[in-house]
Amino acid sequence: MAYTDLDTKCINTIRILAIDATSAANSGHPGAPMGMAPAAHVLFQKAMTFNPKNPKFLNRDRFVLSNGHGCMLHYALLHLYGYDLSIDDLKHFRQVGSKTPGHPEAHDTPGIEVTTGPLGQGISNAVGLAIAQVQAAATFNKPGFDLLNSHTYVFLGDGCLQEGVAAEAISLAGHLQLGNLIAVYDDNHITIDGDTNVSFTEDVLARFESYGWHTQHVKDGDNDLEAFEIALANAKAVTDKPSVIKLTTIIGYGSKLQGTHSVHGSPLKADDIKAVKEKFGFDPTKSFDVAPEVYAAYQETANKGAAAEQAWNELFDEYKQQYTLEAEELIRRFEKRLPEGWQNSLPVYKSDDPAIASRKLSETVLGKVINTLPELIGGSADLTGSNLTIWKGAVDFQPPSTKIGDYSGRYIRYGVREHGMGAIMNGIAAYGLHIPYGGTFLNFVSYAAGAVRLSALSQHQVIWVATHDSIGLADGNETSAAYYVALTSHHTPSVLCLSRQNLPQLENSTIANAIKGGYIVHEDEEADVTLISTGSEVGICVDAIKTLAADGIKARVVSLPCWEVFDTQDKEYRLSVLPDGIPILSVEVYTTLGWEKYSHEQFGLNRFGASGPYKDIYKKFEFTPEGIAKRAKATIDFWKGVTPIRSPINRAFTQLI
Amino acid sequence: MAYTDLDTKCINTIRILAIDATSAANSGHPGAPMGMAPAAHVLFQKAMTFNPKNPKFLNRDRFVLSNGHGCMLHYALLHLYGYDLSIDDLKHFRQVGSKTPGHPEAHDTPGIEVTTGPLGQGISNAVGLAIAQVQAAATFNKPGFDLLNSHTYVFLGDGCLQEGVAAEAISLAGHLQLGNLIAVYDDNHITIDGDTNVSFTEDVLARFESYGWHTQHVKDGDNDLEAFEIALANAKAVTDKPSVIKLTTIIGYGSKLQGTHSVHGSPLKADDIKAVKEKFGFDPTKSFDVAPEVYAAYQETANKGAAAEQAWNELFDEYKQQYTLEAEELIRRFEKRLPEGWQNSLPVYKSDDPAIASRKLSETVLGKVINTLPELIGGSADLTGSNLTIWKGAVDFQPPSTKIGDYSGRYIRYGVREHGMGAIMNGIAAYGLHIPYGGTFLNFVSYAAGAVRLSALSQHQVIWVATHDSIGLADGNETSAAYYVALTSHHTPSVLCLSRQNLPQLENSTIANAIKGGYIVHEDEEADVTLISTGSEVGICVDAIKTLAADGIKARVVSLPCWEVFDTQDKEYRLSVLPDGIPILSVEVYTTLGWEKYSHEQFGLNRFGASGPYKDIYKKFEFTPEGIAKRAKATIDFWKGVTPIRSPINRAFTQLI
User: Which residue intervals define the domain Transketolase-like pyrimidine-binding in the entry (chains A, B) (predicted)?
Assistant: First the structure.
């Protein structure tokens, strides 16, 4: 607890590295790293457990920099602690192909837990990490084996706190009483528009209190290292509430422009850099210069972390002896292997089975696989009864004190918080032991667009069960296939679009066909046209075959439940589904946008829908066998004069990836 | 203030109409109308000023039902007060083409101020309505002429309060000290997932207090009409803070299932309907039955509203005498007429003018038109210095007590609240006297997707100034043209995509060309290929002409800054831009999605970008003259065998609208 000049030197080294890197890149954000360096130093040196030689050590404490633009703070620490991030990597900050992109990306840099930058996401991911830790602990810890007991620490700034996604996640964290979550709010009074008094004058700690958080204020975050260390210890001692520490700091501490927004998002000027270095006792002629004793100080902590992992491994060896099945299960989940034969529990349908809404089919899948796949942790943004995302016997993930569930529960009541749910699911996925899914109406996935984008960018396996879609999955086997693909795609988020209304079981719909993303529902070697569709419209296209036959026209029908998966099939297969020689008409009760890629002509709905019983709506917009047949005929006539009619699968060149 | 049996009968009539309408539709939400009927009755009868015969009366109090699923509450009131909504309209609740859609839509129903349903939007719209009112009042009111002094009332439920967009807007409302905004929080403890204790246990009023709101709690919202009336009066008396009244109610009051989520989203069962009607003294054999004395009671208030408008009109006549220019300006803005000749202030560029970033060009446009168009009310989600959305001499819209602006200011500091900004802009637009614009990075418009969708659905004139896009607007005249289209499209939101980097002024780029959405930048009658592009890539396509010429290939170049506007041009023009006979290659450093509609082949980036200096990134992904030329050649070769090569402008049939 006694801090020495060496601590100061360490802290200033972090600051100078941030200055040098942003200066070399001629872009980036030095202000937050300079202001938060003392806090980061104390947190990493005194509170956190981690092993730089194994960034994936399961029981490590997690650190999330929610104000991701300040990433040089984290990069500097990762370098100093001996993670696989060299001084050259710091010199290549913000360059193409470097390990040090302009905002932290989990897949680029060892030691980065989650991709941040878009404000409000990191704190929400941290809530997910904390949920995952609590749930895993309740599942795997045993008497005498406090196997999983790590904390999640998150730094966040004024910007994060203004974002609604953060408000959603923070509120839920309070409800869930996540004692393993500790947030440090960098109260530096500065955002891009200047002083926070222009738009952000709420009482932040009072707000956290209203959410049920434990709150503290450290008034001199620039100098009072002891006070911050004590606050961290207090926060850890509170086990039934998440904690926030408001840490008042000066942004860009040490710069001539400290305390102003000028240090937020631009490198320091040359004379300022020189002055800061002199002020901190650094050689102003050198850049990226780290004293050996600074490396040594951090190495000592890194060694402690390695020892901690060693001790944990020994504990786990004992655990393996006593709880062999649980240990094997933990390893299996850590390695992202699904249990052998799990897919046999997926339901299979025949074409004469009754018509069922695909949200209902989804419920059936979940009911069948949930016991086989304990890594599945589901929920809904307050639409459980509509999304049908719960299963029989489900236990709510709730604080035990509420008496309505416990922490081993696998059903999360997200509340009406779609964006928070998306970002929390990203955090749960990032923890590494779960596959999260969450339900809402398809239309409201857009509320969470910011988090969905980060799921994709970060390659998180996150599953959206999106119901009440007019472009629902078509039938039972397609629904099973969709789950199969979502559950086996460990590096891709998935959105399952499910219908509210009943849909027939289709000819040729098998799991094997549907997992290809697209397949032939009805073949006709002499066809005049291919009808391509998805979800609820496929059945209507099948009905349109008869309508067309009355006029002597033959049609093939293709179901294309997933563009992205279909695109990964080889060309020969794709051409067999969408062959040359006859025109293709797409049919979907939604925008035609994008269907041009798979068809010559498109029948769609490039406007908002309307309020009414769904059968009336389909009729109004002519999504009937007759309406489809009419457009199929127009398509055939229109393409008569063109030779050859080439399938849109044929392209002049392939895209770079 | 004395309430009689007639009040009770009125309240129960609202409840019964909600029951009958949801029953007739066999869908809808009776619970909220039944629970909130007393509050709505008191609010409309005792607190609000409005004239059913003129729903657009400028100084009316606004009412927003943020929990829009409970719209039968509002429809019932609108009918009873004599708005243009008949009992037959109520009977057609949720039917195709009716004035009573499943969620309230401003354009379908007289008396509905904003379209709600997606939770959290309505309360945020209400903040926008309140901002617009305060700003208009500060602009037009004069000593002795308290011309604009209305209030905005909003009902919201637990669901709205869980949404992040609401948190953003509520926080800003507190900062802005909007004393004209009064929210009534329906504390009924029920969401779709059941009791709010499963996910929503925060202290709501403490949270509002942390944001700077005035708070009150009415504990018996079902019966204590006096207490609610007093609370409303208290809220009105507080002029320097927005007010929230927590009103504890029983959802579905009167039903056998009252207080449970079963009454939330499903019609009551027949026996329950019978029982409720008997309990309330209604004839259970009748539906949609309104007693004459109930109509009479509401008519009396409606008459008062008509008289209030009459008095206001007289006040305005006097105002016209004394403040003729201001009065004319108010009328002009109310009628959505832009000042004559305003467009002459749009800057115009020549092709030899220097390269400029289009965000900078946007700043120039704003600087030129801002004084000509006082209805423009701008801001940024804390990216003012990056979006360049402010102008010289701008006054912040701030509470005067802050001393950093005043309520006549036209520059809003939204904070890092993109979704809130979007929803607030919808509210500002709905008030009727302003054209709001807001800045953020293009990528973060997606944070506001929920609000953007409602801008489009509600036909609000809302302008997003979206910068830091690689697909930026191409040059000066295109930027001016984009503002021209955005400012003259009174029923459409617009997103202006602007570049961070400098872009050259293009040949043939004129405002007249660019406002068509697409035009020929470089013509060649003997061309082998058309290159179609947008924003920053158009200039590279122009450079590719030379690269191709070295191989004896001739290319045309087309700039397509706006798909939607281009689509509205006549076919002849579109075919002149994208003619038959030669293949078309699209070029854009972003997804190829949608470009298939305008081209035969697409060069794009179907992956996430990368971190680095932009020139390095363009090179990495081959968005160079050479990279484009290579793909243009492949396109020409590939399409050689096809006759005829038809422009994608030709379609087999047209879409229904």
Answer: 356-505
